[in-house]
Amino acid sequence: MKIVSGHFYGDNGKMKEYHYTGPVEHRFSPYSFNGGTVLAVAGEDFAIVASDTRLSEGYSIHSRDSPKCYKLTNTTVIGCSGFHGDCLTLTKIIDARLKMYKHSNNKSMTSGAIAAMLSTILYGRRFFPYYVYNIIGGLDEEGKGAVYSFDPVGSYQRDTYKAGGSASAMLQPLLDNQIGFKNMEGVQHLPLNQEKAVQLVKDVFISAAERDVYTGDALRICIVTKEGIKEETVPLRKD
Amino acid sequence: MALSNVLEIPTSGFNFENVARNVALEGLLEGGQTKTPKPMKTGTTIAGLVCKEGVVLGADTRATSGEVVADKMCAKIHYISPNIYCCGAGTAADTEKTTDLLSSNLTIFSMNSGRNPRVVMAVNILQDMLFRYRGQIGASLILGGVDCNGNHLYTVGPYGSIDNVPYLAMGSGDLAALGILEDRFKPNMEMEEAKELVRDAIHSGIMSDLGSGNNIDICVITKQGVDYIRPYQESEYKDKRQKRYKYGPGTTSILTEKIVPLELEVVQETVQRMDTA
């Protein structure tokens, strides 16, 4: 007959429970994860910011039509994924700061300036962070595509392409391979044109929706060019 | 006695040697980047109902490992005996092994007694085993079958609880499926109507629950036999990509090459003609 050994008992002398047996103290968590994936690609004279439109919590869906790209100026779009409450508040704060800048300096903020400002806003909450993964896509002062990717506390850098959010680990290696031509040999390094970039973004999100439960429903693509911002919506898996 | 094989209690159960190590590891890894490997759960929607001619069982086909879809076409309706099938939700390995064990035991019983097992017998064996393991086996099962006493539908929970009901749903999508079943279930339904209702219940689970998805499997058990329709309905979402992603030979760089010739000596040669008529 097996005798229960010492390691089954916890520090307080009681037997360690591996399943629910009575009231458990739950700490209130100010954060929750609402899912979603964002992607941004910078081209020669354009930038693309794309996101899925599913808003989830746990295993349920809150909304099938909640895009995560927000238009900031005529030349900049931001994609925010993570905790939806913080995404909404952060975009409101950025909009307010953009208005203030426009009124005092009589011009719109450039993409690089917005990125620098966002970094300080995020670091201002270093000890109670905004649970948001941001990616800014837009045109810089010379009219070239620019992508800036952030972490929740404000560290940022300029990239050519970046994926963020729940399926980022699945998308980033694919982008590294198809746009950065990494891990390949003997392949022609063709520059990315707008049509191919949009096609790649659609295909990449279809793949992400297959394997990530938090990504799906629809894909919203914002294409930023000097003519303005064009929006396109493509359906994805709904299950 | 012939029945001793069926009711045998194994001498050694699970091995708990690694429990202390795992608890310590979890504490170490919590702060770091790596997470402890999660067992694959079926994160499922399964449903069953009793109709006039028999029992209809239904299940989705998605298996998740955390937030990633591990298997898009996994089979959740398991064979127990020619007249009993079982849907499983919970930890994938637990449902597989538990139903396999049950099936083996009932096959031995069938051979000893010369009869098909009754559904109550299957339920009692399952309940016995799951209760003995105190919930450590994470298997929620829906058993459906037809025997000499009629059409039966039972559910067995991971802690060993059972319930005998005319319709039910289990898994992470159970509330969505139950909503459809509660609305449209009637006793003694016709077969086609019953199949459509189960399909609609699973479909509702697939659309509302993130842990369920892809295709729908249906299993119809009647006195005449079993109709295991896999898939009953394929997912309407096809992954049609616009571009073909193919890599030509030479794309992966060859860093070093070492060729080892195999020295072979012909010892015996036999020629067998193949009949290609």
UniProtKB/TrEMBL annotation, chain A:
Main location, first listed in the record: cytoplasm
Location within or outside the cell: Cytoplasm; Nucleus
Entry keyword Nucleus: yes
SUPFAM superfamilies per the UniProt record, alphabetical: N-terminal nucleophile aminohydrolases (Ntn hydrolases)
GO biological process: proteolysis involved in protein catabolic process
Similarity annotation: Belongs to the peptidase T1B family.
A Pfam cross-reference name: Proteasome
Subunit structure: Component of the proteasome complex.
Upper taxonomic lineage: Eukaryota, Metazoa, Chordata, Craniata, Vertebrata
Keyword annotations of the record: Cytoplasm, Nucleus, Proteasome
InterPro entries linked to this entry: Ntn_hydrolases_N, Proteasome_bsu_CS, Proteasome_sua/b, Proteasome_suB-type
Protein name as catalogued: Proteasome subunit beta
A GO CC term assigned to this protein in UniProt: proteasome core complex
Gene expressing this chain: PSMB1
Function: Component of the proteasome, a multicatalytic proteinase complex which is characterized by its ability to cleave peptides with Arg, Phe, Tyr, Leu, and Glu adjacent to the leaving group at neutral or slightly basic pH. The proteasome has an ATP-dependent proteolytic activity.
From TrEMBL, chain B:
Database matches in CDD domains: proteasome_beta_type_7
An example Gene Ontology molecular-function term: threonine-type endopeptidase activity
Keyword Protein transport: no
Catalysis: reaction(s): Cleavage of peptide bonds with very broad specificity
UniProt entry tagged with the keyword Hydrolase: yes
Family statement: Belongs to the peptidase T1B family.
Function: The proteasome is a multicatalytic proteinase complex which is characterized by its ability to cleave peptides with Arg, Phe, Tyr, Leu, and Glu adjacent to the leaving group at neutral or slightly basic pH. The proteasome has an ATP-dependent proteolytic activity. This subunit is involved in antigen processing to generate class I binding peptides. Component of the proteasome, a multicatalytic proteinase complex which is characterized by its ability to cleave peptides with Arg, Phe, Tyr, Leu, and Glu adjacent to the leaving group at neutral or slightly basic pH. The proteasome has an ATP-dependent proteolytic activity.
Protein name: Proteasome subunit beta
